[in-house]
Each structure stands twice: as structure tokens, then as C-alpha cells.
Amino acid sequence: MSISRRFFLKSGGIAMASMAAAPMFLRRAVAFGNPDGKSAGGKKVLIAIFQRGAVDGLNVVVPHGEEDYYKLRPSIAVPRPKSGEKDCAIDLDGHFGIHPAFASFKPIYDQGHLAFIHAVGSPDNTRSHFDAQDYMESATPGSKSTQDGWLNRYLVSNTDPKASPFRAVAFSQALPRTLKGKAPAVAMANISDFQIRTGPNGNGKGIEDAFEALYGSGNDIVSATGRETFEAIDMLKKANPQQYQPANGAQYPRGPLGNSLRQIAQLIKADVGLEVAFTDVGGWDTHANEGGATGQLANRLTDFSQSITALYQDLGDKMENVVVLSMSEFGRTAAENGARGTDHGHANYMVVLGGPVKGGKVYSHWPGMKREQLYEGRDLAVTTDFRDVFGEVSMKHLGSQNAGIIFPGYQLSSKNFLNFIG
């Protein structure tokens, strides 16, 4: 069959298809490439991690000073801190503690580079995973008509004509909701697989050669874009994804999150112009047999915390310009259910760490857990709008001055910031 460029434009899939790339974007990718690891100038980086499925924040950052927490969770509550006991909450400030599976976080917390945010969430009361994730990624709670994501709007608001096409990268099979929009962004599962491929059912055999033959010569814009695509692929491959060795003794867990964060660290060190990185991790919908200090949730939290700790160790001094922010669509019920799990709730927790973070603290306007203090008599109440957290990161860390573009319909005010960014 004769393959035309029109066929490729209509039917062919490119790993970079989510990027609305003009030819110069890819030339800049090569210019930003620096496999030797020499600094390109201290670019600020945000790494966003979505815990999909509504993690139980009350069993992650444990309000062990609340008697009602233990009354509401007789079989799954994490025990109060006890000296020398490993299956208990690790005390932070006398009122809050962290799940023992977060033990690797405690030294970073004590160093002042990690903080927790509690009773944070959406003002919308949906308990639908799909809707709540959409609202958080678009940062327009209650509105299903928003076409773009808040991180993409940030990129639009801080347009840089010299920006790398690898300014925004998601480690996922498809571009996440939060990075969809007018600004270029890239989705990839693995750096080593960043190549020309066919659609989801194609194996790509022979396609790369045919694509290169079609686009490898000529002076038109399409040919130039094609050549630069291959240059960008070559640049990433020169970073030696198969031979990358984490620094400072860092050991990433072998799960999907550890793999994604390992590659994000690699891109930061390669100085490809990364500014926003995104990844997600599921498995948090614990309706049954959640467990307390051990069990289903504990296993997920161990992988989560150790993956992020490995990133922190691996990046070393480069963490000076990096902020990691975790989020989840909503929390879970204050009381355990009959299946020794928890159902869909309201407010939740977040993790924030990095060099710019004023850590060693739990930031919260804590609402309490007595029945009259709970939202609708069943859930932890939201006292911090998640947009104020996103807003503080985008303005105080990334340097945005266009909050109105990033958070349409919301009057962002620094008065509502928790001031966890120094």
C-alpha cells in the first residue's frame, strides 16, 4: 500500500501527538538537552502526583489527639504513638502523626523540607470519582464545561517563546486532564519508548522507517517538524534511560510510581527544560479491609512514600528548585463501615515537599471530628480550598502572576494561602 503524508497526519499516532509542536519547539528540545548533567540555570519545577481513588487521609496523617477518631474507627484506626512501637502513628506535633508506612518521610519532615496539609479539598460535594477528579484537574469545582486543565492554563499564562517542548511532561499512557489545553505538553509511558508508533492497536513495525522517509527530506514545515521529532527522540535516548543510575544511594521501588519518579528525576538532571511533571497512582479506593497500621492501605503507602523519598535522595541539591505536591479527589468517611473500610467522603490531606517548602509542620485549619463538626454529619469538613494550595504553588514557587487565567471564576487571594512555600 502506498503511504502518504496525509495518511500519517490522519491515522498515524506519535508519542508526541499531544504536543501542538511547531518546528522551533523541537530545535529547542535539542538545545536544552544536556546528558552530562550540567545545570541549565535553576529552572523551577513542579511535580504533581495524583492519588486516584480517594486516599483515606485520616489514616495517613492521623489526628491521634482526637478521641473521636478512635471512637469512629474501632478496628482500622492507627494506634497512638508509643515509644519503641513500630505499628503506631509516628508523632509530628502532639496532635497529628503519620502512618508508620510513612516512616521514610519523617527525616525529611524533621529537616524542614516536607509538610502536610489537612482538611483540604473541593467545595463541591460530589462523591463521584470521575467528577471529583475532573473538577480537581480542571480546578473548576462543579463545572463540567471547562475544556482545559489548570496546569495547562498555568503554562499558557507564563508563555515563554524559548520554552522547551519538554516543559510539561506526563508519565502516563495519555495526556491527563490537568495538562490538556492550548499549551504544548507531552505524554509518555517510558523515556525509552518515546518513539514513533501507530495507534493503540498498532505495533509500529516498519512505521518509523516509513515515517522518517516521508519526513526526512524537504523544506516544508511538515518535513522540518518530522526531522526535529527524530532529533528530540535522539536527544532523550542520549540521556541513557537504560543505564541511568540514581545518585546518593537512592533506591526506587519497582512499581509504576517509582518508575515514573525515577524518570522524572532523569529528565530534571538532563536539563531538557522540564517545568511541570505529572504522574498518578491508583489503588486508594478502600471500601473493604482497609487495615490500620498494617494491611491494604499500609502497603500502598509504603510504596508511595518510598518512591517519593527516593526521588528526594536522588535529586540531592537539585531539590532546591523542585516542589512535589500530591493530591486526591476527596477523602473518606470519618467512621469505618461494616466491611472494615471507608466510603467516599469530603476533605483530605496533601503532601508537599522540596527545597522551597517550609516543612516540619502540618498546615491545617482543623475542623474537629465530633459529629456536629463533621460535614453532613459523616465526613471531615473542608477548611482549605484546594485552589488556594494550587494557587500558592503556581504563584510563589512557579512565579505566575496570572491567577485569573489559571483559576477562572475563583477569587484567589494570598490571604487564604497557608504559606507553606518560603
Question: How does this model look, in words?
Answer:
The relative contact order is 0.22. Strands 2, 6, 7, 8, 10, 11, 12, 13 and 14 form a nine-stranded mixed beta sheet that branches. Strands 3-5-4 form a three-stranded antiparallel beta sheet, with no helix packed on it. The chain has one domain (33-190, 241-416): 3-Layer(aba) Sandwich (Alkaline Phosphatase, subunit A), CATH 3.40.720. It is α/β, with parallel strands linked by helices. The chain is built from twelve helices and 14 strands. Helix content is 29%, strand content 13%.
Q: Between the first and last Cα atoms, what is the distance in angstroms? A: 60 Å
Tell me the total number of β-strands. Answer: 14
CATH fold-type name: Alkaline Phosphatase, subunit A
Q: Percent of residues in beta strands?
A: 5-15%
Strand count, sense and barrel status of the largest sheet are: 9 strands, mixed
Question: Runs with pLDDT <50, length 5+?
Answer: 1-41, 196-205
Under the CATH scheme, the architecture is: 3-Layer(aba) Sandwich
Q: Could you estimate the helical fraction of the residues in percent? A: 25-40%
Number of domains: 1
Shape: globular
Query: What's the gyration radius in Å?
Result: 22 Å
